[in-house]
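Below is a filled-in request sheet from our internal design queue. Each sheet records the structural input a requester submitted and the sequence that came back. We keep these sheets so that new team members can see what a complete request looks like end to end.

REQUESTER: design group, bay 2
PRIORITY: normal
MODE: inverse folding
CHAIN LENGTH: 208
BACKBONE (tokenized):
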């Protein structure tokens, strides 16, 4: 309880600078009768999103043989689409500045939709390999899709996922390029050594 704040709220209320409802709410906060659980709820929602995505992964792994890859990909895609539909319905109107969202679960359903959509694309790539040997482009596509979604919805979490996915694409691409160059150098060195081996063999055969 903060007696100075309580006294200030009462003084402003008596001076008709605060309406009755606002003064009553501020007085409850100053006396400690009304405590915010905003941080705890955000942590609980974030943990729920992580647990839900982990549970979906385990469920699909255990039921892969029974459901089939096409059914699994369709189910995860529909779940991601449902999350995006809810987000689109509750999203605020577009503005160039940061726009606050009234619904507490907005960011977390957006995060759930992004994670499910990314997992679905990764599953499709792993099972059906539409990109083949160019599979790292999947990471770039996901990063480029996440970036405008994060900008439209003012989501720092989704934007951080976009940056980390882009960094993963750069790391994987660089690693593949280095591996290809190393193999090329190894093959080139072997080809260059073949004439020398042939000359040595010919000299040994001629001397004999």
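RETURNED SEQUENCE:
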């Amino acid at each position: 309880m903060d007696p100075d704040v309580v006294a200030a709220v009462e003084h402003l209320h008596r001076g008709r600078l605060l309406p009755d409802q606002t003064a009553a709410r501020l007085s409850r906060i100053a006396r400690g009768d009304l405590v915010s659980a905003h941080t705890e709820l955000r942590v609980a929602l974030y943990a729920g999103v992580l647990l839900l995505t982990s549970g979906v992964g385990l469920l699909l792994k255990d039921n892969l043989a029974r459901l089939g890859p096409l059914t699994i990909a369709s189910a995860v895609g529909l779940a991601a689409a449902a999350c995006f539909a809810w987000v689109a319905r509750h999203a605020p109107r577009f503005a160039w500045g940061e726009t606050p969202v009234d619904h507490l679960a907005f960011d977390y359903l957006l995060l759930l939709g992004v994670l499910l959509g990314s997992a679905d694309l990764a599953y499709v790539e792993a099972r059906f390999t539409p990109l083949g040997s160019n599979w790292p482009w999947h990471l770039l596509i996901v990063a480029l899709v996440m970036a405008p979604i994060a900008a439209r919805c003012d989501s720092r979490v989704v934007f951080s996922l976009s940056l980390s996915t882009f960094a993963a694409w750069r790391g994987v691409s660089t690693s593949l390029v280095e591996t290809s160059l190393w193999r090329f150098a190894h093959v080139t060195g072997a080809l260059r050594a073949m004439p020398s081996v042939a000359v040595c063999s010919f000299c040994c055969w001629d001397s004999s």
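SHEET NOTES:
- The radius of gyration is 30 Å.
- The chain has a mean pLDDT of 75.
FILED BY: M.R.
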